[in-house]
């Protein structure tokens, strides 16, 4: 099969030689390709490329637009993680743009648990600092030009999408708790097609465009954020904002059947994906068959084992020693693989002994003709995050404090100035030390298990990026409970039940994921595929 991996020149033609229906929705170009969850964001990214920008400018343009048109999923008050391949350096970087717990936070106030919503649920926003770091290090265009589409959509408005309308309707009671959020999102009838304008958000974006990091973390915007949060009983301070930093490091990695997989180190749970792959590599999935009961069983059991280790070991490496090197080693994967019984599901694996999904997130992937690639994910955690808008800034805050535990002595125990564990992760697959696939998805704890499925589809079964994206989805929940799209055959589900899995069958395309995939072809072509489960599309030039 060629790098383009085409079966037909026609679009959206069902493919019959797979155990599921797929549609050839692959966009192809030579100068750039971008995959996002919203057409307006994809268009903004293409505009940046055509204006002389590179993949990093395009990704930032898309990310900024997404905070305006998909505020339920990501915002200026959230966090960002990314893996970036910089072609001129032939180097890969991992950027952690997540925020810390406020310095004034008091864990004793959370004896009854960390609140899911409200001002005390928010960590310091990290996304904007991460954006500016990307622009400073790797961008070609002025930040003001890159942010212009987002500013215009915030100031002039945009048509509310079906997905946003549904989210506003469902979360109206949460939004109403904050007077500033109520004004921003409920001042009009939030029906699909109605125009939503966010003038306060536009002013904040303009401040960032003019002054960069200082336009958000210092000065009038910072003062108003702190005032607005404290008015609503939060504990942010100007020092919290001024002292925020972005971490740029070397990614962690493993190989999977000869393909190098690059991921985010902690506090991201990217190492969980690497552990899953190292476990699965001990089984011959290709001989088991695509979407067979044995293949699905191995993938599900590997997820359980890796998540058991996550629950025990993951935390902020600035506060605790996290045994990442051991957890992503081949030897550890082999030892954990020995615990998988091919005939029986394990309802509750214990963590290895070393020597939720109501979340919403935005993922995007971009590549350009220079060879640059960026795998970018940003979020405010739950749908509409904390539900709190910080004063007259238009900034919707995250509720990432819920990533902490209050269990004493755990690596992820809440402390002032500490970063919580993040579900956010993004990956790049490499062949011959060059990018091959850029991929990721939203979905909370579903992220790493969805990424596991997609990578297996690509590597084990040689599916193209559209097929790998369209394959029926499953998710492992608590115990032996799994959710499966109804396109998996009934006889396969019956075999899984015999192994002890408890199955909840959902709609054909109802999986909690919106995968974006970009591929580098060996002939210079750039390919993109956007998940049919979302509202986005792959744009190519």
UniProtKB/TrEMBL annotation:
GO annotation terms (biological process): glutathione biosynthetic process; glutathione catabolic process
The record's active-site residues are 361
Q: Which UniProt keywords apply?
A: Acyltransferase, Glutathione biosynthesis, Hydrolase, Transferase, Zymogen
Q: What kind of modification does the protein receive after translation?
A: Cleaved by autocatalysis into a large and a small subunit.
Query: What EC number(s) is this enzyme filed under?
Result: 2.3.2.2, 3.4.19.13
Q: Which Pfam families does this UniProt record tie to the protein? A: G_glu_transpept
The record's annotation in InterPro entries points to: GGT-like_enzyme, GGT_lsub, GGT_peptidase, GGT_ssub_C, Ntn_hydrolases_N
Q: Which residues bind L-glutamate?
A: 444
User: Domain of life of the organism in this record?
Assistant: Bacteria
What pathway is it annotated to? Sulfur metabolism; glutathione metabolism
In Gene Ontology terms, what is one molecular function of this protein? leukotriene C4 gamma-glutamyl transferase activity
Which catalysed reactions does the entry list for this protein? glutathione + H2O = L-cysteinylglycine + L-glutamate; an S-substituted glutathione + H2O = an S-substituted L-cysteinylglycine + L-glutamate; an N-terminal (5-L-glutamyl)-[peptide] + an alpha-amino acid = 5-L-glutamyl amino acid + an N-terminal L-alpha-aminoacyl-[peptide]
Q: Which family does it belong to?
A: Belongs to the gamma-glutamyltransferase family.
Q: How does it assemble?
A: This enzyme consists of two polypeptide chains, which are synthesized in precursor form from a single polypeptide.
Q: Which PANTHER family match?
A: GAMMA-GLUTAMYLTRANSPEPTIDASE (AFU_ORTHOLOGUE AFUA_4G13580) (PTHR43881:SF1)
Report what the protein is called.
Answer: Glutathione hydrolase proenzyme
